[in-house]
Design a protein that fits this description.
434 Repressor (Amino-terminal Domain), about 0% strand, about 90 residues, mainly alpha, about 55% helix, Lambda_DNA-bd_dom_sf
């Protein structure tokens, strides 16, 4: 078994978790279900679930569609939690 203590986090998977976590947080703040958000954004609910869980990449087109459905600027989906909604 490989020793992973000294390995740095994978920036790609960190980015997926960041975007997915922001989508989930903003969706829940608006009392939206995954099904509601997926419908409003024109994407599949199962796909949205895997994005929220950081398991799939999301295209720029879908970032914009989800941001529009959440009525936020697309940059909000890329913002670290400690900077979220600070303009």
């Amino acid at each position: 078994m490989a020793d992973t203590r000294d390995e740095k986090p994978n920036p790609i998977s960190c980015g997926r978790r960041l975007v997915g976590g922001n989508i989930r947080r903003l969706r829940l703040e608006r009392d939206m279900s995954q099904e509601d958000l997926a419908f409003e954004a024109g994407i599949n609910r199962a796909y949205l679930s895997t994005v929220e869980n950081g398991k799939r990449n999301i295209s720029i087109d879908n970032i914009i569609a989800v941001a529009n459905a959440l009525t936020v600027d697309p940059r909000e989906l890329l913002r670290p939690l400690d900077q979220a909604s600070k303009g």
